[in-house]
Specification:
Elements lengths: L1 H36 L2 H13 L1 H14 L3 H22 L5 H12 L7 H4 L11 H30 L1 H14 L1 H5 L15 H4 L4 H14 L1 H31 L4 H23 L6 H19 L4 H29 L5 H29 L1 H25 L16
Helix pairs in contact: 1-2, 1-7, 1-8, 2-5, 3-4, 3-11, 3-16, 4-5, 4-8, 7-8, 7-13, 7-15, 11-12, 11-16, 12-13, 12-14, 12-15, 12-16, 12-17, 13-15, 14-15, 14-17, 16-17
Length: about 400
């Protein structure tokens, strides 16, 4: 039992370090890009380059994790390469053509899903099945803590020692997670193909594995609806977050207050997940998946009024819904993902969420230029679509089949 607790603590410590470094890297790259190139457009292009390639990298990385006998070691390598990519980006800013730096950012971004879905996919190998719901809630909490700590650390490091230092600290945090990833348990049973076996001598093509993983997501109604609702929710979140500086400026007297609103949402998400960690079976994950976006939609509609008190209430409600929704999403993926495609289901889902967020954020600029309340109402409508989308997938499949119980997890 002590060994199991120790393994979970190491897993959570590594996840927290990696995800804090990742959440620090975005603001740090923005600050460093602005400081070293003097161009706000170039700085935002740098962040976009790191983000956009995750849509491609997620499925491929997941396929590689699923086909290796030691996914933890591959995960550790991905973390180190991602951190190295950040260092190369920093070294190239202002010294090499900016197009080359953008290309490096795109390549580094291919490994981004390792810090989210790739890591979470390994959790059933760390804890037994009966403890998985609580461990899953704790894992989701690392995203909330990282979302609070990462941007704050980036700003603090940039103020204290300059923007390039913030990038260095972010890379160091990601590197610090590599030992925990290296020690993650290996898969057992069918997921681990013994060396020298017939299957090992005729490995399936990587392209076939990628396709089979996508089919696993789209072919399973629980996974398909969980993915669809999460992508719509992330698009709404991207719209909201891109509007926060304008909201802070117009309603609270300063664009910087928009960041404070985001911190409020992260705090409430963390608090909600802390409650779920104590009562992991209080509400069925599938119920949370369709109900949480409705709370988000109501909160975003409230934010559209532009009143200061309404904004504070709105961001708190968004966080209270967002935290448990992430926990529920992980729970459904753990429950439904085939063992041999588990990593790919998680990384593909993470890639689609990142894409949804990026589309929402990109849409926010033109919409907010037309009407800030209108942009928030579009965000509310996008979130509200997640609930009927959930049931539309259910209806298309016919009568819903009973949810499979979580499979007991074995440890290497």
């Amino acid at each position: 039992m002590a060994d199991r607790h120790s393994s979970l603590r190491a897993y959570l410590a590594g996840a927290l370090a990696a995800r804090t470094g990742d959440d620090m890297a975005g603001p740090a790259l923005l600050l460093a890009g602005l400081a070293l190139t003097g161009s706000a457009t170039g700085a935002s292009a740098l962040l976009a380059a790191v983000t956009v390639s995750a849509a491609v990298g997620g499925p491929v990385l997941g396929a590689l994790l699923d086909r290796t006998a030691r996914p933890g070691r591959l995960l550790a390598g991905a973390l180190l390469l991602y951190a190295a990519g950040l260092a190369v980006i920093l070294g190239g800013l202002g010294r090499v053509p900016f197009a080359v730096t953008l290309l490096v950012a795109v390549v580094a971004g291919l490994l981004g899903p390792a810090l989210s879905g790739g890591w979470t996919a390994q959790l059933p190998r760390v804890v037994p099945g009966e403890r998985l719901p609580r461990a899953n809630a704790l894992d989701a909490m690392t995203f909330g803590v990282a979302g609070l700590a990462g941007p704050a650390l980036a700003g603090g490091a940039a103020e204290a020692s300059g923007a390039p230092t913030a990038v260095v600290v972010a890379a160091a945090l990601i590197c610090a997670a590599a030992p925990a990833a290296w020690r993650l348990p290996a898969p057992v049973g069918p997921a681990a193909t013994p060396a020298g076996s017939a299957a090992a001598s005729r490995p399936a093509p990587l392209t076939g594995l990628v396709t089979s993983g996508v089919r696993a997501v789209l072919g399973s109604p629980p996974l398909a609806r969980a993915t669809l609702t999460s992508v719509l929710s992330c698009a709404a979140q991207g719209l909201m977050i891109a509007c926060l500086p304008l909201l802070g400026e117009r309603a609270l007297g300063g664009a910087g207050f928009g960041a404070a609103l985001l911190s409020g949402a992260a705090l409430s998400a963390l608090a909600a997940n802390a409650v779920f960690a104590h009562y992991p079976r209080a509400v069925a994950p599938d119920t949370v998946l369709w109900a949480a976006p409705l709370f988000q939609a109501a909160a975003l509609a409230l934010a559209a009024t532009g009143r200061p008190a309404a904004l504070v209430v709105a961001v708190v409600v968004v966080g209270v819904a967002e935290g448990p929704q992430l926990t529920a999403l992980f729970a459904v993926r753990h429950r439904e993902a085939p063992d041999r495609l588990r990593s790919q289901v998680f990384t593909t889902g993470a890639s689609l969420k990142i894409t949804g967020f990026a589309v929402g954020a990109a849409s926010a600029g033109p919409l907010a230029g037309w009407s800030l309340p209108g942009a928030l109402l579009v965000a509310a409508g996008t979130a509200a679509l997640a609930a009927p989308a959930f049931f539309a997938v259910r209806t298309a499949d016919g009568p819903a089949r009973p949810a499979r119980p979580a499979r007991p997890a074995t440890r290497a």
